[in-house]
Amino acid sequence: MQDPFTSRLATRMQGVKSSAIRELLKMANQPNVISFAGGLPAPELFPLDAMRAAADRVLERDGRKALQYGPTEGIAPLRELIAARANAADPHAEPVRPEQVLVTTGSQQALDLLAKVFLDPGDPIVTENPSYLGALQSFRLFQASYWTVDMDDEGAMPQALDPLLARGPKFAYLLPSYQNPTGRSMGPERREQVVELFRRHQVPLVEDDPYGALCFGEPAGATLRSLAPELTLHLGTFSKTLAPGLRLGWVIGPEEWVARLAQVKQSSDLHTSTLSQHVALEVMGAGIIDDHIGKICAAYGERCQAMLESIASCFPAGTKWTVPTGGMFVWVELPQGVDTAALLPAIVAEEGVAYVSGAPFHPNGGGENTMRLNFTHASADVVRDGIARLGKALTRALEATTA
Ligand SMILES: Cc1ncc(COP(=O)(O)O)c(C=O)c1O
After folding, report:
1. CA 183/CA 128 separation, integer angstroms
2. Which pLDDT does position 11 carry in this prediction?
3. Domain boundaries, the chain
């Protein structure tokens, strides 16, 4: 007999399976497992002292305000600061005004709000192939269908994007800077070409940009928002530059659309934690953020290098991989016939190494021979050790399939 909940499930929930992200975060937390799975920053590099001092100052000086309810759009000085930082990063663009900023509970909330504001069941949206799993899940909950764009080393290819935008999707969701999951980034010319297509077809563009500041090589370049502010909703976050536990992100966009998202946010959580907002503001005011970003970028660059060198020497012949200049991920394509999802349980159990298999990042299927590897969470030595073990296991598996 069905339990009384199951028979009352909303239609939209019927295709929803257990979240792959949640499953992998569980796996990443097992002791003795070297995890390349989650998108976790290095915890030893969190600016703990600065955060503690900032929290103390906030509670001492503004405690009653910081513990009170706040405005749905976010506290005014934080919106001003986010606008000011966006303007400093893109000095040639039309300046962002604080009214164009909505503070969100992580950028993940912004994805949920976008889905609620724009998507009816079956609505098509354009995404890169592969794309960020958490976004695909948010959009899928609102029954989106996906038109996927093929990518080259610089991300979405204009010749593939053009006909899809011409068909009039609800919006396109792109990650132009150090993409999750591939680590690929658009160069300046690609950015111009892509923006010109959005202008021509008048399609809204959602630019998800959690990694743009995490650069240890080629800088990410102008945001798509700065090139087409009238068409772009730009998502940012403090999760990768400060700490994900703050749950602080933002949307920058045309004021009218930011206000629409705020309307929906109100019924979702009233507002983002006032305490988190005040603490982040105080940390930013202490002027440590740019030094801190410099420090994590240097560490992540070293870890990425260790991963790339180890892949080159330990992975089976015929493997291809991306060479990121920022962000958190390397994308690996193994020879056809290797099923990375099928291999994962045994590799975790026998080698003590975890990764994310690539198939779930492909909205319409495929990618069984791919995987995403995170290089930021473990030290360079641990990265080398883990990749050597993984390489051995993959080589064995490949030999078994060709034997
Ligand atoms: C591309 C992308 N967008 C959004 C998020 C959500 O980040 P948060 O909600 O912590 O800001 C992540 C997290 O890994 C991500 O990789």
Report:
1. 12
2. 86
3. 6-46+291-398, 48-285
Most informative mutation of 105, 107, 173, 242 for ligand 1 (most atoms within 8 A of CB): 107
Secondary structure of residue 330 in the 3-state scheme = strand
User: Which residue lies with its CA nearest to atom 6 of ligand 1?
Assistant: 108
C-alpha torsion angle, residues 53, 55, 58, 63 (rounded to 10): -140
Best residue among 46, 180, 235 to mutate for probing ligand 1's pocket (most ligand atoms within 8 Å of CB) is 180
Q: Does 237 sit in the ligand 1 pocket, CB within 6 Å?
A: yes
For ligand 1, atom 16, name the residue with the nearest CA. 180
CATH 3.40.50.460 fits 48-285, yes or no: no
Ligand 1 close to Cβ of residue 207 (< 6 A): no
The one-letter amino acid at 44: E
pLDDT in tens, 274-291: 999 999 999 998 888 999
Cα 40 from Cα 312, distance rounded (Å):
24
pLDDT band at 109 (very low <50, low <70, confident <90, very high): very high
Cα of 130 vs centre of ligand 1, distance in Å, is: 15
Tokens of 45: 């590099």
Give 163 Cα–ligand 1 centroid separation in angstroms: 28
- Whether 249 lines ligand 1, by a CB cut-off of 6 Å, is yes
The CATH number corresponding to 6-46+291-398 among 3.90.1150.10, 3.30.565.10, 3.30.230.10, 3.30.70.980 equals 3.90.1150.10
pLDDT of residue 21: 56
Ligand 1 atom at minimum distance from 248 CA: 11
Which is nearest to 89 in space by CA: 183, 215, 249? 215
210 lines ligand 1 (CB under 6 A): yes
Both tokens of residue 1? 């007999």
Q: For residue 346, give Cα distances in angstroms to 8, 29, 349.
A: 38, 17, 5
C-beta neighbour count of 151 within 10 angstroms: 20
b vs e for 164-197, b when ≥16 Cβ sit within 10 Å of the residue's Cβ? bbeeebbbbbbbbbbbbbbbbbbeeebbebbbeb
